[in-house]
Amino acid sequence: MSTWLITGCSSGLGRNLAQAVLKHGDNVVVTARDLFAIQEIVSTFPDTALALQLDVTNHKQIAQVIRQGESRFGGIDVLVNNAGHGYRAAVEEGEADEVEELFATNFFGPVALMKAVLPGMRMRHKGTIVNISSIAARTTEPGSGYYAATKCALEGLSRGLQKECASLGISVIIVEPGAFRTDFAGRSLRQSRTAMNDYAATAGLRRIGNDVTNGHQIGDPEKGAELIIKAVGSLEPPELLVLGSDAVKVVSDALSTDLAQVEAWKKNSIITDYSD
Length: 276
What we know:
alpha/beta; 7-stranded parallel β-sheet; single chain; Rossmann fold
């Protein structure tokens, strides 16, 4: 029996994942900012679920949650950094306080959680860290530059951690979901207070009042949760897990486009080397 710690379990992929892991028979430290929102999960699995309040921007609270989880179940075997939110703004529109909060939630919170569980994982020479990223890290739509930047940062750190921890028995999985039918494009989506007319035809088209995709996303969060469990339990966990047919297309197209750009300028790129 493994012990999972999952952030952002009040709704969406995090909630579905917590419920699926518990149904599979593992322990779960179920966390969310709103403790009431996750009580139902714990009441269904009173012996294997522990509900704890967690705001990932509160690093003291992170340490408390780790201690409580370890006290109840022992070491944390699987960390899933799922908590986060979207933010829509043209780059020029983004306000400093909102961008700082976005990075605190989507990047620095997950970093603090990883650093908190790694000592135990290193000691046991076993563990898995799952970082929920986004296809926005591959291709950034107008108005999503700041959100994509948080996910690019998370992926860059994850790739470094993969290489640092592979010999220690610790796996790191980057998950790039496509559009899932969750609250991500609903209540979890925020936008800049300022809207500039010059960006109306680009970033402006994706402001909350103009976005009609919520509720029509192709991705099923229950199926996404099951695939994450399968990846974590595999003998060779993937370093990158793409969720959804839309994500497969986006990632494949982005890789092909990048390769084409490299090839197009290859002859020019290589002449920048020293010629001695």
